[in-house]
């Protein structure tokens, strides 16, 4: 991680070894940057023989296929964050969501760590309306998923295991 300044006081960070890990600590106020993963919730949506993927409209991995979902906001449960993201990205409501697995991943160049919870989701009836984070929505046959056009390794893994 390339962070250089303290979020609390703006002092310079230095690298310290602690519990077998390298952490960043402020020289001035002693605040420690642990670099914990940021939680995300994503949806595996299968209908018959098809899987719904969303093409990313923005970096990182702009133009690649992804599972719908996104980062959990402060105060949200993973399920509520998932419901909000699905509303934003697909214009849809969730009928049921069942937790499948966690994945670790890094986000962006020199990226920060994320912890993604993958849910098997059934959508309520209704027409999909894609949000601004998504440039295209497409149902792919589960036997011919576009693995080479998927940016996140964790998404490829989740699809191999659960789709
Ligand atoms: Zn500080």
Q: State the strand order across the main sheet.
A: 8-4-10-9
CATH superfamily of the largest domain: Nucleoside Triphosphate Pyrophosphohydrolase
Beta-strand percentage range? 35-45%
Element-level helix/strand string: EEEEEEEEHEEEH
What structural class should be given to the helix and strand makeup?
Answer: mainly beta
> What's the total helix number?
2
Number of domains: 2
Keyphrases for this structure?
163 residues, Nucleoside Triphosphate Pyrophosphohydrolase, 4-stranded antiparallel beta sheet, 11 strands, elongated, 2 domains, 14% helix, mainly beta, binds zinc ion
Can you offer a commentary on this structure?
With 163 residues, the protein is mainly β. It folds into 2 domains: 1-35; 38-162, Nucleoside Triphosphate Pyrophosphohydrolase (Alpha-Beta Complex), CATH 3.90.79.10. It is 14% helix and 42% strand. The chain is built from 2 helices and 11 strands, in the order ββββββββαβββα. The chain has helices spanning 78-90, 153-162, and strands at 13-18, 21-26, 32-33, 38-44, 46-47, 50-56, 65-66, 69-71, 94-107, 112-123, 134-141. The strands form 3 sheets. It has a 4-stranded mixed beta sheet, with helices on both faces. Strands 5, 6, 7 and 11 form a 4-stranded antiparallel beta sheet that branches. Strand 1 (13-18) and strand 2 (21-26) form a beta hairpin. The longest helix has 13 residues, at 78-90. The site of zinc ion (ZN) has 8 residues, from loops.
């Amino acid at each position: 991680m390339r962070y250089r300044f303290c979020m609390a006081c703006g002092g310079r960070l230095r690298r310290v070894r602690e519990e077998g890990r390298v952490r960043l600590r402020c020289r001035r106020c002693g605040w420690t940057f642990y670099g914990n993963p940021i939680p995300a919730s994503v949806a595996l949506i299968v209908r018959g023989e098809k899987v719904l993927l969303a093409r990313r409209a923005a970096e990182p991995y702009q133009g690649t296929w992804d599972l719908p979902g996104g980062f959990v906001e402060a105060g949200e449960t993973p399920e509520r964050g998932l419901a909000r993201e699905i509303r934003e990205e697909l214009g849809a409501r969730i009928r049921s969501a069942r937790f499948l697995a966690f994945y670790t991943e890094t986000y962006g160049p020199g990226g920060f760590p994320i912890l993604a919870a993958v849910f098997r989701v059934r959508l309520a009836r209704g027409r999909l309306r894609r949000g601004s984070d998504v440039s295209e929505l497409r149902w792919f046959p589960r036997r011919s998923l576009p693995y080479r056009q998927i940016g996140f390794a964790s998404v490829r893994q989740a699809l191999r295991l659960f789709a």
